[in-house]
Amino acid sequence: MNVDIGNALATVASPGVSRASLERLDSQVAAAHERIERGMENREHGYESLNLPQRTDPDEIRAAVEPIADAEVLFTVGIGGSSLGAATITNALESDTETVFLDNVDPEWVTSHLERISLENAAINVVSRSGTTAETLANFLVVRDAFESAGVDWTERTIVTTGEAGPLRDLANRHDLPSLKVPDGVPGRFSALSAVGMVAAAVCGHDLEALLEGAAAERETLTGSLFECPAYAYGATAYALDKRGAGVNAMMPYAESLETYAEWFAQLWAESLGKDGLGQTPVRALGVTDQHSQLQLYRAGPRDKLVTFITTQEGTDRGIPETDVSELAYLGDATLGELLAAEFEATEASLAAAGQPNVRIELERVDEYELGGLLYGMEAACVLAGELYSVNTFEQPAVEWAKKATRGLLGGGEFEEAEAVADKTELRVER
Ligand SMILES: O=P(O)(O)OC[C@H]1O[C@H](O)[C@H](O)[C@@H](O)[C@@H]1O
């Protein structure tokens, strides 16, 4: 990926960052890079994620999915880091295999999928690093029950990816299911380029080697300077802008196929950096759709935002048919791709003219190689930003409270029901 931070520099108005301040920031980047390299070398928790391009074995993943490789529909049962990486990859790329990601436990939604799909031709990919996440385990029990009811032996149609030990590992062992291990030292939201993200990609027939090659190429750019490394340029700019008041980061790809990437980014950025009263709030957006929904706020609302665009150079294009309506004649000479590009340029210019900082991430096209680079590059940007903020990028203690409270409310121990609902203000307004 390439990163253009031109519009984030303070050429127009605050809260842009000046070139001089970026040059000062560069020495902090150099120190952070040393820490990151050391963490990678010593395979420390979290930093190990940046070694995945060298560590992940595509042959092992392909061999494990062999028994279910013929699936016409693949249910991936997982949530957060155990779902969004795989969804980003498979939603971005074309495949004959349909993918369904069951993260939410909304019964109506889960049921609608199970009733719509013919389960004889389906398979289950259950993923949980901890092996204890209530939503994932509940959905898995529901899905396997639906398979049984449809007369399908779920043990023949399930693959498990989980940690070394835990309830899901025990279940896999008990039923002798094909299974893969979440690599040590890799938190869920950094695991897209391991089995966690790549099992679904393998079943869909995507090029796993190219995903890893794209990531490896990005890894090669990790040097001590933000002026040489696109990932660090992005991480450092986002951090510097946040320090100047841009506490919101709107991720806005201009390719429908990358919509899920914005969701993946939201978890990465929020869970990794949102701690100790620090962090930048990620917002999910999509060009051109959100030009007609959120752009008014981005341009004329509070000066508290960085807008991150993702553009692609190549892809399928389609001509716009000519019409005899004279006001629309200008469209007849163009293609949808040209219209999209013009919309992007106009939006970028409009924000820059209003002094609203924005950054452009450029991809050649949406394919495995570029996606691998985009995922890896953003992870590296996030790790760098975590060093600059001086937070522990790789933990998420605040999420644990609600997880325990949920278990407590269901009688799963550890947490008293009274504690889970304590201090609720009694104010209810009824129709
Ligand atoms: O992979 P699992 O252990 O099931 O965890 C799934 C998700 O659970 C929690 O909500 C964590 O905050 C996420 O970081 C994690 O990705």
The secondary-structure class comes to alpha/beta
Secondary-structure element pattern, one letter each: EHHHEHEHEHEHEHHHEHEHEHHEHHH
Give Rg in angstroms: 23 Å
- Percent of residues in helices comes to 40-55%
Shape: globular
Percentage of residues in DSSP E strands: 5-15%
What's the tally of helices? 17
User: What ligands are attached or bound here?
Assistant: 6-O-phosphono-alpha-D-glucopyranose
Low-confidence stretches: none
Task: Please tell me the CATH architecture of the largest domain by its name.
Answer: 3-Layer(aba) Sandwich
Family: Belongs to the GPI family.
Main location: cytoplasm
Keywords: Cytoplasm, Gluconeogenesis, Glycolysis, Isomerase
Enzyme class: isomerase
Secondary-structure blueprint:
Blueprint: E1 2-4, H1 19-41, H2 52-55, H3 58-65, E2 73-77, H4 84-92, E3 98-102, H5 107-116, E4 122-128, H6 134-149, E5 158-162, H7 167-174, E6 179-181, H8 195-203, H9 208-220, H10 230-243, E7 248-253, H11 259-273, E8 281-284, H12 295-300, E9 305-312, H13 329-332, H14 336-353, E10 358-363, H15 368-389, H16 397-409, H17 417-420
Parallel strand pairs: 2-3, 2-4, 4-5, 5-6, 7-8, 7-9, 9-10
Antiparallel strand pairs: 1-10
Helix pairs in contact: 1-10, 1-15, 3-8, 4-8, 4-11, 9-15, 10-15, 11-15
The structure holds 6-O-phosphono-alpha-D-glucopyranose.
The site of 6-O-phosphono-alpha-D-glucopyranose (G6P) has 14 residues, from loops.
